[in-house]
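Handout, page 2. Input:
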Amino acid sequence: MSKPRKAPISGQIRRSQMITTFGPGAMVDLPLHAVLIGGLEHWTEHGRKPVHEKRLEASIVKQLELPPETRVPMYTPPVDDEDPASPRAGVTSFVFPAWFVAQLEGQIFHDLAGKPYRTRPLVHWRGLDGGSYYLHDGKKVPVVPVRFVQACRNGHISDIDWHRFVHAGEPPAARARLWIDEGGTGGDLGDIYIRCEATGARRPLGEAKLPDSRVLGRCRGDRPWLGRNASEPCRAEDGDEPEWSRLLVRSASNAYFAQVLRVISLPEADEAVRKAVDTLWDDELAYVDDLDDLIKLRRKNKPKVTRQLGALKDADIWNEIERRRRGFEQDKKIKVAEIETLLACPPEAAHDEEPDDDFHARTRTLPELTPILAGRLERVVLVHKLREVVAQIGFTRFEAVMPDIDGELNLGVRRAALSRDQSWLPAVENRGEGVFLGFDDDAIAAWLRRERVKDRGRQLAHGFDAWKDARRLDKLVFPGLPYIMLHSLAHLLVQAVALECGYAATAISERIYAGAAGHGILLYTGTPGSEGTLGGLVAVGRRIEHYLRLALELGRLCSNDPICAQHEPHDRHEERFLHGAACHGCLLIGEPSCERRNELLDRALVVSTVDALGAEFFVDP
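Output:
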């Protein structure tokens, strides 16, 4: 008898990308189809694993505005195995959009002025032969998905009603064939027209891209990633009417922004108990009603239970079970707890054995520093082992809303749902290593008191206000100069160490701490793949003074100076409101490395530039 064979898959995506770039609601071009990644109800249970991190769970409950006792489990995206007899594991996706452009060659349309346009049929999937080809004069013509759809700020998305668009309102009862006319070679929307074959009506697509354009009508609240009949009422932020739909290019960078929370796992006094309960929670301990039930369970001598609980006390295990049922309480903000732990790491010892824990870090003894670093760099911590847990709680379109400087998402932010019933969330855990740099709080306070620093701060704040007004994000707060300075220094450091530490620049992540608990930068690598434990960043930490000096040299001069150094953040012509002296020639790096999507950067706060503003933190002796 032949072995059973699984149904073929449509494509593959890395597990870590399923909660960032290609999460629920994201548009993806697979080899044969353009699809919308399905919501969590359409992810198989087989092939996924639980992820436990109590500080992250507490933050999620707060962000979703749920009762404190609520528990929202986290699971990894499902991964298929090679056993042909096992159930298929994966994620269901939905074909989207439903309109296609037939690849008909050699068809030219001339407008009234005689300008030639390449023209091709715009066809709905119901007009395709077998869903794959368009029949033209008896010949099968291949098709590709149309590039344009409509969406709103609430994350809703749908196909454009092209008949309504081309007729600027109500289309005729008999809907004729539509054509898409493209002129020029640059893909400018002003050179793309939709044309009705029967009526001759013709309309430029650029009209739908104009600011505050309303030509696509009100949003219908469609959520096709959640399946059929998943629409919900759409409401604009400033009224009861639905949002106006906006033109969205499927492959554009603003089509999908995952909202994720990240936490570095920290050591705790009850670490052994927590890990044991984590392992047995879903299968055994979640169903224990009281201490007597727990004792009875242990007396059954189940191998897995006995192996995990070992010599742990019944009372300690029961306390952990009760605490989970009450809900994880988050006493401190995410980043506050992390920097307090990093600043409290003990010094290195001659025979310091690395424990079998998720976090292991030691403070390195600093030698006598050069004048430009002395009095500013206070502490270097070598993080030999760390575990990062990343969970997605929603997504937005058109505008990204990122965590604040303490690592928490702003409450009240409109986000699209990952599922109809938010019973669990997707998450991944990454393991790696890193180096933490702590900076003197008094030195930063003295720097902030300088008049030229205050002047630069006002310029950056004006740019932030212009950016906030343009995007109607009134609740966001300017992060402050210490954050922008440390963020800019982190980007310079990533570039300085990438060539020598053994990791690609995009494999190095940053975490910026700029609050009342302290100021610092954590550069770390944490991936589920091979780039996780090479030890390169720990080796960098032992020579961090060299890399800091190299980073400062990189910041002094940009290949685009003096234009880069003289950029004004509030300039409405350039619309780079969140940049000071920053561009692709100096500070901007691969976005996987950056926690703020390459925004809130200014090297003039780090070191003196050709513009000589006098606002630098690292002053030449």
